[in-house]
Design a protein that fits this description.
The protein has two domains: about 220 residues, P-loop containing nucleotide triphosphate hydrolases (Rossmann fold, 3-Layer(aba) Sandwich); about 100 residues, Alpha-Beta Plaits, CATH 3.30.70. The protein is α/β, with parallel strands linked by helices. The N terminus and C terminus are likely disordered. It is about 35% helix and about 25% strand. The radius of gyration is 25 Å and the shape is elongated.
């Protein structure tokens, strides 16, 4: 690696050209179970790439394959232009990679400061690197504390600090927000965005849909070991379908309203007192829907155009047979309880 330009921040990650992560046909099986199935992935320098999937979807197995912690059944992995081949991977590569997988491995007798100083000595880093990462992860008040006295969130912060102490060019994180309170989640989000702006490439796995949509430049949705879709964070938010929802005072009124809007493909919902349609005409002209309902003697207590939420979008993209929760009944319960 070329020496840093003195005009640059000495602690910033080196700028890398080309793909930082590349997999071709990556597959891993545990006996007859295929955990990762033919994944082709490319992640560019300075990009935050989020893996989104349910528990058991293959996220952690894929990350372990990226890090050489297991040998894939088929396919190839390249990090920073270097092929990853388990124990045959050049050791110099890992000096440019930081990672946190399935929680930090901590020594019970060492304090927070002991852990970070040991990591810095192992990597031959200046003492300033420890001070910097303590400040970044807000661990200053816990320097003399041992792991068992730390909260789950602060153990996770320490794990992140150990992954970041050497300012890696590539950061691989498995559920980085695990155990963090809302303020901690925001802090980590801000930190990861700052690192990416400085040139660090971040790959993170998560099941937190809203968080990955806010943070990631691109999101890969993994299901049953396959990469089933790739979207930008903005696309993930905007990709949800629109629908027109109407609610009524009784099941009888709702049933007659479904008949009145049959021309727009209206269907009753599980609560029995509301309906939904995805007709573009109805969505674009809700006032005409309201007029038709009133003329049919079925005035709605609620009428609105809604976006499919991220959880429903995820279920749709993964082809899940699970049914989304009907939230209209909760929102309109007060209205339907009002006297006529």
């Amino acid at each position: 690696m070329a020496p840093a330009d003195p005009a640059d921040d000495a602690t910033a990650a080196p700028r890398i050209t080309g793909a930082v992560i590349e997999t071709l046909g990556l597959t891993h099986r545990f006996g007859t179970l295929t955990a990762v199935d033919g994944v082709d992935l490319t992640v560019a320098s300075g990009e935050i790439y989020g893996f989104l999937g349910r528990n058991g979807a293959g996220k952690s197995t894929l990350i372990r394959a990226l890090l050489g912690l297991l040998s894939p059944t088929a396919g190839t992995v390249t990090l920073l232009g270097v092929p990853v081949r388990g124990g045959r991977t050049p050791a110099a590569l890992w000096g440019q990679v930081g990672y946190l997988v399935e929680g930090p491995g901590l020594y019970p007798t060492l304090t927070v400061l002991d852990h970070l100083r040991a990591a810095a000595r192992y990597r031959r880093l200046a003492r300033a690197a420890v001070d910097d990462v303590i400040d970044r992860l807000a661990l200053g008040a816990y320097g003399d504390v041992r792991p068992r006295a730390l909260s789950l969130g602060n153990r996770q912060r320490l794990g992140l600090a150990l992954a970041l102490v050497h300012r890696p060019a590539l950061l691989i994180l498995d559920e980085p927000a695990n155990g963090l309170d809302p303020a901690g989640v925001v802090d980590v989000r801000t930190l990861l965005r700052s690192l990416a702006d400085d040139g660090t490439t971040v790959l993170m796995s998560t099941h937190l849909i809203t968080e990955v949509a806010r943070l990631a430049d691109r999101v890969g949705i993994i299901h049953a070991g396959r990469l089933v879709a790739e979207l930008s964070g903005e696309q993930l938010t905007a990709h949800g379908r629109q629908r027109l929802v109407a609610a009524f005072r009784s099941a009888d009124v709702a049933g007659r309203a479904v008949d009145a809007l049959a021309c727009w493909g209206a269907e009753g919902r599980g609560d029995g007192v509301s309906l939904v349609t995805t007709s573009p005409t109805a969505i674009q002209e809700p006032d005409q829907v309201a007029v038709r309902l009133v003329r049919a003697g079925t005035p709605p207590t609620y009428l609105g155009v809604e976006h499919e939420d991220l959880e429903d979008l995820f279920l749709r993209l993964t082809g899940s047979t699970s049914h989304p929760v009907d939230r209209t009944a909760d929102r309109t319960a007060d209205r339907t309880a009002e006297p006529a």
